[in-house]
Amino acid sequence: MKQLVLLGGGYGNMRVLLRFLPNQLPEDVSITLIDRNPYHCLKTEYYALAAGTISDQHVRVSFPEHPRLSVKYGEITKVDIQNKQVHLMDQEPVPYDDLVIGLGCEDKYHNVPGAKEFTYSIQTIGQSRKTYETLCNLPADSIVGIVGAGLSGIELASELRESRTDLRIKLFDRGPRILNAFPERLSSYVHSWFDENGVDIVNKANITKVAPNTLFNHEEQIHCDAIVWTAGIQPTRVVREMDVEKDQQGRVVLTKYHNLPIDEHVYVVGDCASLPHAPSAQLAEGQAEQIVQILLKRWNGEELPNELPKIKLKGILGSLGKKHGFGLVNDRSITGRVARLLKSGVLWMYKYHNG
């Protein structure tokens, strides 16, 4: 019996499971999924969990059940490619024949002193719960600083504004305008929403240091009662410590078949993979679709195609609270209620098909 081991129950490996189960898994293959949580987490919704506008249960989806799927819960400490084993904290190593690494990412602090120690995060469900507890318990007129105005920072700031209208929110953005890489129409729309809803955007910010309840922006000290970091990501520690080729962002360099150049039995999916697009749930799912087809061909001894089709991304959708949103769909800018309804629909379809 071949052992396919999946590290992490994120979007990529959930798509692997969805494609193999219940009827496409070869009779001589069993799957072991390893994750620290006993459920799949909707990471794209952590901002709302941290802001207190949705419940914990809203971001959880059960793993599928199947006679040849086993789920192990634990903390992964090392991937041993030489001996084809995955090491877990306080557990026996798990052997594999084929491995798909989908361990996601964690915050990148860009060597800013104090950033890791004195800020909150929304990178894991546990961190999001802790952030929610802190933000929920702040007294009225408290100042919340959000460092990083990418999609996560924008969605957290807008959701927190709707959840706690009594808070003073400051969103720190490195660029000259918010969403600098997007069309100016989208940027202006989001900026106007924040202006109308009393969120202070600090453009051309450069956070040089973080101290308890204090941000240093270009050395100017800014008091904050709570600080949330959404200013960049990097692969998880386990992947960073793997002795394999990586790109400048620390992501693993792969062949066109999504496996390590030195080992065709080790695949990397999602945020840890070096790909020509920014990490996203869509991208991880597109990779997973191709990995499943490659595994089936290799298991059957079939020749692989010379080229794989390009992964097509449908676009990006972001929310501004529960009623407004923005996005790029097929290179077309959309704003307002339509964008928010689209995002809600995508989430509903995902939960419907996976739950």
Account of the 3D structure:
The chain has nine helices and 23 strands. The protein has helices at residues 11-20, 46-51, 115-118, 125-136, 151-163, 184-196, 237-240, 281-299, 337-354, and strands at residues 2-7, 29-35, 40-41, 60-61, 69-73, 76-80, 85-88, 94-95, 98-101, 105-107, 143-147, 168-172, 199-202, 207-211, 214-217, 220-223, 226-229, 233-235, 259-260, 263-268, 315-320, 324-329, 332-336. The chain has a six-stranded mixed β-sheet, with no helix packed on it. The chain has a four-stranded parallel β-sheet with strand order 13-12-11-17. It is globular, with a radius of gyration of 21 Å.
Task: Report mean pLDDT, rounded to a whole number.
Answer: 96
| Weakly predicted, low-confidence segments | none
Q: Helix proportion of residues, in percent? A: 25-40%
Strand composition percent: 25-35%
Rounded radius of gyration (Å): 21 Å
Q: How many DSSP E strands?
A: 23
State the major sheet.
6 strands, mixed
Please give the count of helices.
9
Task: Specify the overall morphology.
Answer: globular
Strand order of the largest sheet: 5-2-1-9-20-19
| Separation, N- and C-terminal Cα atoms | 28 Å
Secondary structure class reads: alpha/beta
Keywords:
single chain; 28% helix; 4-stranded parallel sheet; alpha/beta; 6-stranded mixed sheet; 355 residues
Q: What topology emerges from the helices and strands here?
A:
Elements: E1 2-7, H1 11-20, E2 29-35, E3 40-41, H2 46-51, E4 60-61, E5 69-73, E6 76-80, E7 85-88, E8 94-95, E9 98-101, E10 105-107, H3 115-118, H4 125-136, E11 143-147, H5 151-163, E12 168-172, H6 184-196, E13 199-202, E14 207-211, E15 214-217, E16 220-223, E17 226-229, E18 233-235, H7 237-240, E19 259-260, E20 263-268, H8 281-299, E21 315-320, E22 324-329, E23 332-336, H9 337-354
Helix pairs in contact: 1-8
